[in-house]
Amino acid sequence: MGMYSRQLALDLPTGQSAFLWGPRKVGKSTLLAERFPQSVYFDLLDTRRFIQYLR
Fold first, then answer.
1. Measured torsion, CA atoms of residues 25, 31, 32, 33, in degrees rounded to the nearest 10
2. Whole-structure pTM value
3. 34 to 6, 10, 48: CA distances (angstroms)
4. What is the predicted pLDDT for the residue at 6?
5. What would you report as the CA-atom Rg of the chain, rounded to the nearest whole angstrom?
6. From the CB of residue 43, how many other CB atoms can be counted at a distance below 10 Å?
7. Please, what sign has the CA dihedral across residues 26, 28, 29, 33?
8. What is the pLDDT of residue 50?
9. Distance of alpha carbon 42 from alpha carbon 17, whole angstroms
10. What is the block-wise mean pLDDT of the chain (55 residues), using blocks of 10 residues?
11. Alpha-carbon distance 50 to 33, whole Å?
12. By the 8 A CB rule, do 42 and 53 touch?
């Protein structure tokens, strides 16, 4: 299987946050990690972390 180049342009101002929605397993997290390596990441599929932030 070959690699595909991402065509999504995300130019966010410093300090700006955004949601990236889409189907599972299409590379959303990988794209964000490559594009914004210093950003804070919250995995809300981690049940303990989700409950912590829900409180």
1. 100
2. 0.56
3. 11, 12, 26
4. 65
5. 13
6. 8
7. positive
8. 92
9. 12
10. 71 81 87 85 88 91
11. 20
12. yes
